[in-house]
């Protein structure tokens, strides 16, 4: 078991169980075609979950879904050819978001934690989720939800924690991991010495934290009260909060992390590919701005399909990210689309308009 803990060097326990099952399901890794068929099914399931989220928003024009399904060679490669764990984690994450939209927060938190156990990039959504839990339940009310996340992590990692707790925690959740310069997609224009320098990493971390604070204060928090009112029980707040924009908060939280990432490797594209249409079209869009937004998607795709990355592709990717970020900052997202009533299920009014 100690050897397994070492094998889980860069990934938590859920990854070990998942790919161990895949290993035996494919005849000890011999039947690669079967593995590709499994991941092709995962790709279709992932699209179904994403489409279900987008149907709740009513913001993205239908023709954009063609690009999401058919126009990304890199995404198809990540799912069906490379068999990375990244798409597995993202599929579970999108399933969790579907549960959040249905006001099933406990199940959503359980699935969110399961996704983290497969790939810890899901933690980029965690600041947004914490904000939503505080907004929805207050400080005391969100503690049980956080406990669900923690208990699952302990349960999945228990065999490794009992054998080598320090080794498991430091290697599976290695936040100080050094990335190889040859694989970077987003920082190719920097000298390698700068790319590897700890001061550069610290600067990116500070920029990420500053971005999260600014968005939490000025874009996520829409109540007239202080943001500290989130700590109160919702029933005790003086001013009721506007409908929660669950998707906007989660997707923008993740995107801020992407923009400030120390390095983006090619498989990391799946971390935010399916969220880009929403981020571009969640703000008011005139007929004249549809084409520039499609063009922006195309340039981002081109940057990720450039191998090896170049100074031009890397700079272009940052420019595109910057444009998306500026739009999210200067243009307030449209209010959530109203949902038809469902008499068969009683739910809190805050959650029924949570898109």
Automatic annotation (TrEMBL):
UniProt keyword terms in alphabetical order: Endoplasmic reticulum, Glycosyltransferase, Membrane, Transferase, Transmembrane, Transmembrane helix
Enzyme Commission no: 2.4.1.258
Single GO MF descriptor: dol-P-Man:Man(5)GlcNAc(2)-PP-Dol alpha-1,3-mannosyltransferase activity
Subcellular locations according to the entry: Endoplasmic reticulum membrane
Gene Ontology CC annotation, any one: endoplasmic reticulum membrane
Transmembrane segments: 7-26, 32-51, 105-134, 146-162, 199-220
Catalytic class of the enzyme: transferase
UniProt pathway annotation: Protein modification; protein glycosylation
Reactions listed under catalytic activity: an alpha-D-Man-(1->2)-alpha-D-Man-(1->2)-alpha-D-Man-(1->3)-[alpha-D-Man-(1->6)]-beta-D-Man-(1->4)-beta-D-GlcNAc-(1->4)-alpha-D-GlcNAc-diphospho-di-trans,poly-cis-dolichol + a di-trans,poly-cis-dolichyl beta-D-mannosyl phosphate = an alpha-D-Man-(1->2)-alpha-D-Man-(1->2)-alpha-D-Man-(1->3)-[alpha-D-Man-(1->3)-alpha-D-Man-(1->6)]-beta-D-Man-(1->4)-beta-D-GlcNAc-(1->4)-alpha-D-GlcNAc-diphospho-di-trans,poly-cis-dolichol + a di-trans,poly-cis-dolichyl phosphate + H(+)
Membrane topology per record: Multi-pass membrane protein
Function of the molecule: Dol-P-Man:Man(5)GlcNAc(2)-PP-Dol alpha-1,3-mannosyltransferase that operates in the biosynthetic pathway of dolichol-linked oligosaccharides, the glycan precursors employed in protein asparagine (N)-glycosylation. The assembly of dolichol-linked oligosaccharides begins on the cytosolic side of the endoplasmic reticulum membrane and finishes in its lumen. The sequential addition of sugars to dolichol pyrophosphate produces dolichol-linked oligosaccharides containing fourteen sugars, including two GlcNAcs, nine mannoses and three glucoses.
Name used for this protein in its record: Dol-P-Man:Man(5)GlcNAc(2)-PP-Dol alpha-1,3-mannosyltransferase
